[in-house]
Specification:
It is built from 19 helices and 7 strands. The chain is mainly α and 426 residues long. The chain starts with 10 loop residues before the first helix and ends in a 5-residue tail after the last strand. Residues 175-327 form the Fido domain. Keywords: Transcription, Transcription regulation.
Amino acid sequence: MNLPHTPEYSPADVKKAWEYADTGDVIDAVFKYNQKYLHWDELKRRDLPVDPLYVWILMKTFRKKDMKYVMFDDLQLKYNLLDAFLEKLHCLDKSAAGSISSGLDSLPHDRDQFIINSLMEEAIASSQIEGAAVTRTIAKKMLRERRKPATKDERMILNNYITMKRITQVKDEDLTPELILEIHKTITRDTLEDPNDEGRFRDNNEIRVFDMRGNVLHTPPDFASIEGLIEELCAFANNDEGQFIHPVIKGIILHFLIGYVHPFNDGNGRTARSILYWYMLRKDYWLFEYMAVSRAIKDTKGQYKLAYQYTESDENDLTYFIRYNLTAVKTAVDNIQKYIEKKQRESRQALNILQKSEGLSLRQAEIIKFLIKHPGKPITIKEIVETYRVAYGTARNDLFHLEKLGYLAKQKSGKEYIFIFRGLRE
């Protein structure tokens, strides 16, 4: 696959393009493909009424009409707010205080569990994007059981998980170079070739972003400018005066800028997604604590990289990158809605179990419901602690009570007990 590019054209080409400005099918194509915000590499493959170059020139002309600009150092970033963007932003704004909020409120015993699960999903997917070869099942088991990571890839996931939890604690703090360095140090601990690179800006210009074929996709700014660029990035994140930028759009821009500056020798992608997560929580988009945006990104990893490339190849037009990220966010929101609907069904099932059983708490019924779905899976006290955010003694009492009632069989495994589901009682 060739790297994305945009065509050069002359004043004569512009003049020729405008000769088609009153041609109905040409203008229809211009507006149709601007709504989709096609890149040149996509447009040139379409069946068009005239030379694609002339359609592209007209598309670029109309794009400039409503373009918004953001200056970052000597870099001029720009973007268009498409109707599709406004619709997604409106849905997200409503979700944070509307139907999803009431849906989660209807499942109070699930909120903490869902937060933990979402943090796990985000940590796992963000690491997998960067090459961590660990399945979700194994990764979640490690995190729930608080098992020490056995490999570098497992360590990446644990680091991401610790970082996600840390960000929920510092969401009200200003972004500073020190906080960015702390995030990077936490997210890369014991995973880099040179441990001295943990929490340290790069001190060289050897870093390039390559594709799988070895093509250079991005050459970051000179390392000598990193500290100044990071200071400017922090000021941009903390300052809400002047030009209004919708918080979600601004968070996506911060995500892009970390990738553009590439301030570290490794771990830039994970840090960038962490900064997006921090900014959304800072701006009271509490829903992000329940969202695993990186999971949506992982499932479309090729498009994620392409969004960066389209932006940089087309005069730093962020519209491509914003379009991709808003789609990922919308997918994450849809997953939450599906989760709520699923949990509401499961809660009704759990209540049915409660009605037929004596002496079960709602949490204990939830444990049984989980084991019905995973009958061969052993469960431990530590898993219950992590999954339900309860004290060790509470988790122990739950499992011992279920064992006493005959739902579980207890076995010794080293210093720990494991519990096996025996089935529902007659």
